[in-house]
Cold shock protein, CspA family
Amino acid sequence: MQATVSTFNSDGSAVVLRDDGVLVDVSAAAVTAGGWRMLRPGQRVTLERSPDGAVTALRMPVL
């Protein structure tokens, strides 16, 4: 599922807006698991999720 970064927090966590309009909190661990050091508002990302629905990583978007 793809999303747009809404907010990047100083602790490394983020809030993203999924393409279906739902805001999702993303932990700092999930941000770094995708290889990011920082994100900027408006940046597109792909959410990687566990079977229970938790975001495990933010990846580069697939175009």
